[in-house]
């Protein structure tokens, strides 16, 4: 079985070809077209278990009555990220969980907003400090 | 009216401004940073995606993380940051310079200084600049404005989206819009190749099944009150094939059609602008045509990596400090952008020390050669696996390098890509 | 926006349909008499029709023969602008108009214009040699053979003009109804009952139809004369304030049989306007710009001012002229009573509009409207500061009184939060309305930086929710969801 893809680890964008044995018992995967070993690693992972770092924003709980007198007002979103690349096929589920959150101020950069998201051992953390 | 005085004023508190200010302070100069937003960080604040800081911090950070880590470097250092403050006028023709700015809490401030570092960043090209014909409905946004609305204000600009321009901002927004539940129908690119990083084509378009129409021009935006769709036509062999035009229904158009360094303050102050970069002409000290006025970051030329913005801005800060201390370039050589090179910044270098040049290719090519010549003699012939216009290149010309070259020591340096 | 209605059984003396330059001038004129006047407009704000998309010129009075009503109104109207500016504080300058001849036969045409100007009583009109032309306008092409100069011609910000007229009228008792589209009307004893599309209605003894592109439809609604307003579109380019091509004078080419030609206008805001083109359109609603026309404009402008450059373009727009024959149709209807027609007001409509205000007042008087002057009519309106025009000292003082004057929202045009709040306070609650009042979003970044700030200020000041924010009313909402 043969698959083609573009490597995204560096700006080169090598065109990779992955060959996999049709024999189920043989786990060997051959990667060609890469100009460095990172391409081979990327190709393997992309084939077997593609992952993506997810970044998004969470809603901040609106505090107090009335509207702030400054244009900036109270911040409305806190940006966040997965601490490590997340399984690609579960990303939409993860986003739903992130959008359902309501975070209270203050928030610190690095603070865990969702621990062990979807039970996959990856935290979602805030990427900004807001008071 | 408040009158203040510093050795140097940095206009802009984004990555460039912060980096330059840190170097000025480290060299013992008193420095003020003027930032119009309520907080330092510049455009990084709204770039919630990752991809920043691979070189600077050896990590792939998100924009806000990168900005905050720099902000932390400033805290505890005697750098005066004036936030929520907009510069109205720059009077920099003489030795004593005055920066006039306004803020709601401080009224008008007149800040006297002897050096100014321009770090105002850039603005986005808009529909008017590229003259897309059609009606003027609501729902046409520049990608950066949409990014602000989504990532900071928390609003959805539209549900059915088309993106014009395949630059990184547009690609990032293609993913962002998809991730907030919008349907991105297409990305339209006028050139025969995408202008963003391949990594972004994969992660932002391929991952979401968003078609990329290369060599297509947007010929119309229609809709009475709100966008109802766009019309695009292919370009074949340089000719616009209007008979093959087709419509893409949508309610939102995002424009990612280029960035323009924001030099209106510079122009009004009398700084000479390089039409190839839309930024100031600068010498080997990153100093503009006005003595004591330096420029760095996106206001000097549009960068793709914030790491290079920081590197360049540190140099500007150091040079500004040295200049304040009386240092001047002893001798300078002109640097020319020749074959296939769009520009080289700065356009001068000083032999006898390390010089860092930033340049852009005009072509897409694998296995290209970056060539530096002086007086007809080749000084450097650097193999580049891959060059493309949207990826800035850097060139370091070392102390000894020009010494070794003999023949015509005063001749200009010529940079080309073959 | 709606004022208090005169209530059931209550009847206005006059209802004016259409709040453009004509309606606004008529409204202000009538507001100086003891009358109950209503001004209605189908858009979300006044001046959203033809009056917002034109060249912004106070004409020189030499383009049309005196036999035409429009020429007589133009001459009279042009003289009224200085006083209006003093009372209403809208941007207006008499920078002078020149007409350029690039060929020998064009000089013949210029001579005819000059003769017409003299006959029309234009003060200070001159025939110019090439040398004189270049002295008057250094940006002119060296190919200019000569031309004419009318020092009284000028430039005005048309939407600010209309806004200030309506403000003055409402200050003196006018009631304004926006989003009010007339859909039906019937005569009931000695008054008109007019129905709006959304169910509102009002009663008025006299009606003035100055509905611009839709004057023909309004006429039919009232059972009055049957005519057709044809749209003729004009496309424009706007050039950056820092363009090298900014002239001192408004530059006209020699006119053609159907239009005054494509101009180069130093707008009173500091930008440069080039255009308009002139092409008939079937759809009066279609103010879309087209590729072909824009190329034509650039070429034509460069003929007169070689420094005009594509790279200076910041935006383009189009306006549609309401055309109806050679002259203005301003008269009492011969078909139905108490109905004044003001139709086909294309160029020089803006210039003529103050005089149209007076003319219509006289027509109403002739039709039986009793005019008693108000003793306490106030011609002045509250002037509000424009930060971009202030010195640092003046601005500093202003910020001390109101810190919102120190918060720059639109950096390109130097518009502060206080000015945006002022626009909203005066009833401009759409992004376009705020744009026309303050100039925010009109600069080189075209709203790229300030739009989100304006949206937030609007929500804060009016209590509107995110889904009510529009560009220009109706369905033009900006945001489609909240995260």
Can you describe this structure?
The complex is a heterotrimer of chains A (131), B (418) and C (483). With 131 residues, chain A is α+β, with helices and mostly antiparallel strands. Chain A is 17% helix and 30% strand. Chain A has helices at residues 37-48, 91-100; strands spanning 2-6, 15-20, 29-32, 51-52, 55-60, 77-82, 86-87, 102-103, 112-114, 124-126. Chain A is elongated, with a radius of gyration of 20 Å. Chain B folds into 3 domains: 2-123 and 260-328, FAD/NAD(P)-binding domain (3-Layer(bba) Sandwich), CATH 3.50.50; 126-257, FAD/NAD(P)-binding domain; 334-417, Immunoglobulin-like, CATH 2.60.40. In chain B, the strands form 9 sheets. Chain B has a 5-stranded parallel sheet with strand order 6-3-2-10-25, with helices on one face. Chain B has a 5-stranded parallel sheet with strand order 12-21-14-15-16. A 5-stranded mixed sheet of chain B has the order 28-26-33-30-31, with no helix packed on it. In chain C, strands 1, 2, 9, 10, 11, 12, 19 and 20 form an 8-stranded mixed sheet that branches. In chain C, strands 13, 15, 16, 17 and 18 form a 5-stranded antiparallel sheet that branches. In chain C, helix 1 packs parallel to helix 6. Chain C has 3 domains: 4-52 and 159-229 and 326-366, FAD/NAD(P)-binding domain (3-Layer(bba) Sandwich), CATH 3.50.50; 93-155 and 231-322, 2-Layer Sandwich (D-Amino Acid Oxidase, Chain A, domain 2); 387-468, BFD-like [2Fe-2S]-binding domain (Arc Repressor Mutant, subunit A), CATH 1.10.10.1100. Chain C is globular. Classes of the chains: A alpha+beta (131), B alpha/beta (418), C alpha+beta (483). At the A-C interface, loops of A face helix 13 of C. Strand 13 (155-156) of chain B pairs antiparallel with strand 23 of chain C, so a sheet runs across the interface.
């Amino acid at each position: 079985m043969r698959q083609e893809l573009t490597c995204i680890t560096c700006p080169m964008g090598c065109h990779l070809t992955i060959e996999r044995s049709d024999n189920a018992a043989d786990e060997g995967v051959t990667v060609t077209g890469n100009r460095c070993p990172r391409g081979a690693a990327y190709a393997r992972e992309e084939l077997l278990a593609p992952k993506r770092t997810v970044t998004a924003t969470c809603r901040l709980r609106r505090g107090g009555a009335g509207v702030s007198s400054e244009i900036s007002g109270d911040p409305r979103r806190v940006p966040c990220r997965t601490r490590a690349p997340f399984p690609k096929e579960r990303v939409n589920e993860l986003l739903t969980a992130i959008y359902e959150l309501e975070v209270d101020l203050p928030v610190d950069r690095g603070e865990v907003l969702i621990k062990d998201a979807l039970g996959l051992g990856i935290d979602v953390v805030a990427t900004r400090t807001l008071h | 009216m408040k009158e203040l005085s510093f050795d140097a004023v940095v206009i802009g508190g984004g990555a460039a401004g912060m980096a330059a200010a840190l170097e000025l302070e480290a060299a013992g100069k008193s420095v003020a940073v003027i930032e119009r937003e309520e907080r330092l960080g510049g455009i990084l604040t709204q770039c919630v995606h990752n991809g920043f800081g691979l070189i600077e911090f050896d990590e792939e950070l998100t924009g806000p993380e990168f900005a905050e880590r720099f902000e932390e470097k400033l805290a505890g250092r005697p750098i005066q940051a004036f936030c929520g403050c907009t510069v109205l006028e720059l009077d920099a023709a003489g030795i004593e310079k005055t920066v006039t700015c306004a803020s709601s809490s401080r009224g008008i401030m007149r800040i006297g200084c002897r050096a100014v570092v321009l770090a105002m960043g850039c603005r986005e090209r808009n529909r008017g600049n590229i003259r897309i014909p059609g009606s003027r409905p609501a729902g046409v946004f520049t990608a950066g404005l949409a990014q602000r609305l989504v990532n900071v204000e928390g609003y959805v600009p539209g549900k059915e989206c088309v993106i014009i321009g395949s630059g990184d901002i547009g690609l990032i927004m293609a993913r962002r819009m998809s991730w907030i539940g919008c349907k991105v129908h297409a990305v339209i690119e006028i050139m025969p190749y995408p202008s963003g990083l391949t990594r972004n084509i994969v992660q932002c378009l391929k991952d979401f099944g968003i078609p990329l129409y290369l060599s297509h021009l947007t010929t119309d935006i229609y809709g009475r009150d709100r966008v109802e769709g766009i019309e695009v036509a292919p370009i074949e062999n340089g000719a616009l094939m209007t008979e093959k035009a087709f419509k893409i229904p949508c309610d939102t158009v995002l424009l990612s059609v280029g960035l323009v360094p924001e030099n209106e303050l510079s122009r009004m102050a009398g700084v000479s602008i390089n039409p190839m970069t839309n930024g100031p002409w600068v010498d080997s000290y990153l100093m503009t045509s006005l003595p004591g006025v330096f420029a760095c970051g996106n206001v000097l030329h549009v960068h793709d990596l914030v790491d290079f913005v920081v590197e360049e801005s540190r140099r500007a800060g150091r040079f500004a400090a040295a200049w304040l201390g009386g240092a001047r370039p002893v001798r300078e050589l002109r640097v020319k952008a020749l074959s296939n090179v769009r520009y080289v910044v700065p356009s001068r270098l000083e032999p006898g020390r390390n010089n860092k040049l930033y340049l852009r290719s005009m072509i897409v090519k694998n296995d290209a050669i970056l060539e530096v010549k002086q007086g007809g003699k080749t000084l450097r012939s650097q193999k580049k696996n891959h060059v493309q216009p949207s990826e800035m290149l850097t060139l370091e010309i070392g102390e000894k390098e020009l010494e070794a070259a003999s023949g015509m020591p005063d001749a200009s340096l010529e940079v080309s890509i073959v | 926006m709606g004022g208090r209605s005169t209530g059931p059984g209550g009847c206005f003396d006059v209802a004016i349909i259409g709040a453009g330059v004509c309606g606004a001038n008529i409204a202000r004129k009538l507001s100086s008499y003891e009358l109950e006047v209503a001004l209605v407009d189908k858009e979300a704000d006044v001046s959203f029709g033809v009056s917002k998309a034109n060249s912004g010129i106070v004409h020189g009075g030499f383009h049309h023969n005196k036999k035409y009503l429009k020429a007589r109104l133009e001459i009279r109207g042009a003289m009224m602008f200085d006083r209006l500016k003093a009372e209403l504080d809208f941007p207006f300058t008499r920078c002078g108009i020149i007409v350029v001849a690039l060929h020998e036969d064009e000089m013949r045409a210029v001579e005819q214009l000059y003769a017409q100007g003299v006959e029309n009583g234009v003060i200070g009109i001159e025939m110019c040699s090439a040398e004189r032309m270049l002295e008057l306008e250094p940006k002119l092409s060296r190919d200019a053979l000569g031309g004419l100069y009318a020092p009284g011609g000028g430039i005005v910000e048309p939407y600010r003009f209309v806004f200030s007229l309506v403000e003055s009228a409402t200050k003196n008792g006018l009631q304004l109804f926006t989003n009010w589209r007339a859909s039906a009307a019937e005569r009931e004893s000695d008054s008109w009952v007019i129905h709006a599309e959304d169910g509102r209605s009002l009663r008025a003894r006299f009606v003035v139809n100055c509905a611009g592109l839709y004057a023909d439809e309004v006429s039919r609604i009232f059972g009055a004369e049957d005519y057709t307003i044809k749209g003729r579109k004009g496309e424009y380019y706007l050039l950056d304030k820092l363009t090298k091509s900014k002239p001192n004078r408004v530059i006209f080419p020699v006119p053609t049989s159907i239009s005054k030609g494509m101009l180069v206008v130093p707008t009173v805001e500091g930008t440069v306007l080039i255009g308009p083109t002139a092409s008939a359109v079937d759809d009066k609603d279609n103010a879309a710009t087209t590729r072909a026309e824009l190329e034509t404009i650039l070429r034509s402008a460069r003929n007169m001012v070689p420094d005009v450059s594509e790279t200076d373009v910041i935006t383009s727009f189009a306006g549609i002229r309401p055309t109806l024959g050679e002259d203005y149709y301003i008269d009492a209807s011969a078909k139905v009573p108490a109905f004044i027609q003001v139709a086909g007001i294309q160029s020089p409509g803006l210039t003529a509009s103050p005089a149209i205000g007076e003319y219509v007042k006289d027509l109403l008087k002739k039709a039986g409207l009793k005019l008693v002057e108000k003793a306490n009519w106030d011609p002045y309106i509250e002037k509000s500061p424009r930060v971009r025009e202030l010195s640092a000292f003046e601005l500093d003082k202003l910020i001390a009184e109101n810190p919102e004057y120190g918060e720059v929202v639109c950096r390109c045009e130097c518009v502060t939060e206080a000015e945006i709040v002022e626009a909203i306070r005066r009833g401009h609650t759409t992004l376009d309305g705020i744009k026309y009042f303050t100039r925010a979003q009109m600069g080189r970044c075209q709203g790229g930086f300030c739009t989100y700030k304006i949206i937030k200020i609007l929500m804060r000041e009016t209590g509107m929710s995110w889904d009510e924010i529009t560009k220009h009313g109706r369905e033009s909402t900006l945001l489609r969801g909240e995260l």
